[in-house]
Amino acid sequence: MNHLAEITGNIATVGYGVATLSPALGIGLIVSKTQESTARQPEVAGILRINMFIGMALVEALGLIGLVAGFLFT
User: Fold this and answer.
1) Tally: H helices and E strands in the chain
2) pLDDT (tens digit, 9 = 90+) per residue, 17-63?
3) Does 15 reside within a domain?
4) Residues in CB range of 10: below 8 A, 6 or more apart
5) Banded model confidence at residue 1, pLDDT cuts 50, 70, 90
6) Is 4 domain-assigned?
7) Residue 59, in any domain of the structure
8) What is the pLDDT of residue 14?
9) pTM
10) Alpha carbon of 48 to those of 16, 53, 56: distances in Å?
11) Most buried pick, 43, 50, 63, 71, via CB within 10 A?
12) At what angle do helices 12-40 and 45-73 cross, to 10 degrees?
């Protein structure tokens, strides 16, 4: 029987890859919604920017946890 591709390794590695990919999508949504809100009400841009950075830090922390878990458990 001919095998075109052989998969080796742990399937959990795919899960950890998804865990690091998801925060990128989250940050994209946070920034896009902040820009949309700023376009609608420019006078609250400063408050929105602060909240955006706090949200980005929390989402990025989850991504780093997923990345470190991938290195620790594989």
Assistant:
1) 2, 0
2) 777 788 889 899 999 999 999 999 999 999 999 999 999 999 888 88
3) no
4) 74
5) low
6) no
7) yes
8) 76
9) 0.69
10) 31, 9, 12
11) 63
12) 180
One-letter amino acid for residue 39 of the chain: A
Joined together, the tokens standing for residue 48 give 């929105």
Residue 56 and residue 27 in contact, taking contact as beta carbons nearer than 8 Å: yes
Q: Phi and psi dihedrals of 10, rounded to 5?
A: -105, 135
- What is the token pair recorded at 11? 């399937």
29 in Cβ contact with 56 (< 8 Å)? no
Burial class (CB in 10 A: 0-12, 13-18, 19+), 23: buried
Please check whether residue 57 lies inside any domain of the structure: yes
Reading the block at residue 35, the tokens are: 């820009």
How many distinct structural domains can be found in the chain?
A: 1
One-letter amino acid at 12 equals: A
